[in-house]
Amino acid sequence: MSAQGSDGGVVYEVNLDLDADIADAYLVWLDEHIETMCALPGFSGASVFEVIEPTADAGRQRFSVHYSLDDQAALDAYLRDHAARMRADGESRFGGRFRASRRVLGIVG
Fold this sequence. Notes:
By secondary structure, the chain is of the alpha+beta class. It has one domain: Alpha-Beta Plaits, CATH 3.30.70. 35% of the residues lie in helices and 34% in strands. The protein is built from three helices and four strands; from the N terminus they run E-H-E-E-H-H-E. Strands 2-3-1-4 form a four-stranded antiparallel beta sheet. The two termini are 13 Å apart.
């Protein structure tokens, strides 16, 4: 099965692990970042979750952002045309104080 679910929808998941002492500032930045992301073609919304399990290491905090996209083509366009710039913004502001990993999920049913 491809990343695209049966209805074409795709969720782009970004998992964040960050120093707890930057969490407040990071979340302020993340709200702006999400607004910019959701203005891109093919993005239809986003949800931010605090990761409860597995628990974060001492002095760390975890979040997961789920971006809803129309289809795989919209994600491909984002990755090709915008991802490097969007990721660089977070790196320039918060440097090595966070880690991000990503997954692509296809909506089923």
